[in-house]
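Example: Acetate CoA-transferase YdiF.
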Amino acid sequence: MRRVSAAQAASLVRDGDTLLIGGSGGGHAVPDALLAALGQRFRDEASPRGITALHPVGVGDGGHRGMGHLAQKGLLRRNIAGSFVNSPPVGRMALDNEIEAWSLPQGALSQLMREMAAGRMGLFTKTGLHTFVDPRLQGGRQSACAREDLVTLEIVRGEEMLFFKPYHIDIAFLRGTTADEDGNVSMEQEAVTLEMLSEAQATKRCGGIVVVQVKRMAARGTLHPKMVKIPGILVDLVVVEPAQEQTFLVPYSTAYSGELRIPLDDIPVLKQDARKVVARRGALELFPRAICNLGSGIFTGIANVAAEEGCLDAICLTNEQGNVGGAPASGGDAGAAMNPDAQLDQPYQFDFYDGGGLDLAFLSFAEFDAAGNVNVSRFGDKLIGPGGFINISQNAKRVVFGGTLTAGGKPKAVAQVEQITFSGAYARSRGQPVLYVTEAAVFRLGDSGPELVEIAPGLTVEAVAGRMGFRPAVAADLRAMDARLFDPARMGLAAEIAGKAGKPANPRLAAL
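Written out as structure tokens, the predicted fold is:
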């Protein structure tokens, strides 16, 4: 292992290389110094040109950090990612057809890293069927010049499966906290661990170069072996960045790393507005010991609501980046969690999700339509990508989608979504219960589409329908939304959850 500068590491990237980038969202374990150095090299030398950037999770601060450093015409030829929401400049290049762009399910890309590390042919999964990732629709393409079939439809033992092809990796930019003199890397101050090990293994199998950005160096033999996430046998170069931040917003939070737990009173209380109404209504679906996912967006507020109501410990909140327990963070820090009980590598979290481990999934919608389809990946002039949404929404036992009924005066309930990130028909065929929660009304997935089941006090069916792009069916048992949702006082949610039946115990355990 050699220690080099970020500029020296960036000088190794050649024209046409495939660059694998570790990290998540707003700076979580993102090797930003390496990406900045590569961006600067291109500005100085107009080199390298035509590279492919591959990253399972969206990477950036919503501006010019992360993948934003690489948003330069000529530097990027193609980008394959779980999402583009964190890097609007790259998303803009895709929309303008300046690069070949695909957005594929975060979980599929995460698990694919492990398949590539083992030298297997690729990833077979049902995740993505009947969404825009399905090659019968768009195959995950997000720009017109993206022609290659990265996803194919296969029949395996009589069942439809999607096959995600592997990639040849030339160089990987990864990140940890500490490296010793032999290149062993630990991640004790990181908010997430992701698939750093699998990415390093996959790169080495391809004969590629593994570069790891860290905050500090340690003497040989001083890292506890159980702390090492990337063994030195996989690391070629280490770049030390003493100013490395935990996220783009937080220099270091002990609550994110698991070093210390913070009091629940330190978790912010949401202001009373439409977004809190939606989060509160979602929280009414909770029950004792429910294992839940909170996607990014409006439903991250459920963690704040549960903390405010004193019932966070009655349930288990998780996020796809690998945190189990605690309170998932919101906003630019989404992906981290305060007070997690465990932090898993991301591929294993998605194994659990894909296997049906989630009792409830709380996911935001950008728009939903008359067929019950949901879109979060592309709308108007915004390229977002699915992130972990497809894995989570297709495989959870029950899904609750949340959002405001309108945005900027325009309906978010539309006749037909622009891109299908969740298929209502596919959910219906599998008997998956689905709710659509807004501040004005609640809908459930019925026989033909969303059916109005709850309405805010003081509103009429006509008033709700007038703010939609289609007329919904109305349930015979239509009722008013709970008045507590609109009152700033606490709802008494802890007692309500405690009074519900919890998950049934395994019959074998009941005999003890």
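DSSP finds 14 helices and 34 strands in the chain.
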